[in-house]
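User: Fold this; tokens only.

Assistant: Input:
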Amino acid sequence: MNVLLTGINTYLGKKLSLFFLEKDYQLTCLVRNETFLKEKGNTNLSVIRGDLIREKYSKDFPKDLDAAFYFSYYIAEQGDIYQDLELLSIQNYIKKARKVNCAHLIYVMPLRSPVNKDIKQLFEKSYIPYTVIRTSNIVGKDSLLIQIFKRMASNFAIISNSKLASSKCQPIALSDAITYLDFIASNPVTFNQTFDIGGPEILSYREMLSQFLQICKIKKTIITLPFVHSFFSTFWLSKSSGLPKMIAHAFSENIQGDLLCENNRIHDLFPHTSLKFKEAVLESIK
């Protein structure tokens, strides 16, 4: 497999790149800064320093790509300016993909964001087979969710508001998310479709935190307040987890409601048995 990947600075993008290298795929990573690429000595890895907005690249893109991944961290709440930059970035990515005869475009985004109709229209007009994937919360070593739970567990008490405690999602193990992405990359049955990928369980954040504490054999009090202003919720999450305030605000705002998979057709195409949350946590901390 000859694969191009942009968005290696995202957690899932970085982990998928390591998986591809372990499978001896020919991998090209488009990055702005290559200082964090510890695998630069790998003969199967090629690195292009570039900027999709300004269309400046350190070298040519590889030809005859089997798949080109675009990992997005854009969310609708960021506003029109970010949306316009995302659209321009994707448009230029598609332009390069067409020039090098790419066989499959794969756009990966967070489940919390709806599929932007303008973005989808760009892929539909690209004349390249595409797949749009929305991923639920990832449970893996050093994933955002696990980092937050670890830091919360180190506090004397854990405080959350009722919405945060009751909001539900479908956490998915990192290994399962990568398995789905690898399947999608190499299978034409996924062309020109949108899929949501999540774990087999629907759990509230309080339930996940309680199971995490149980697995780690940590006894902590979880205090749920009936109402907490969003400012205090962001402040407390930042202080209790060590997250920067901007990330804490985005996280607390985007988990105020249920984040459940709406399109589960991937299971019909690929009947994979995913790990439950406890199994995923054990896998992430072993």
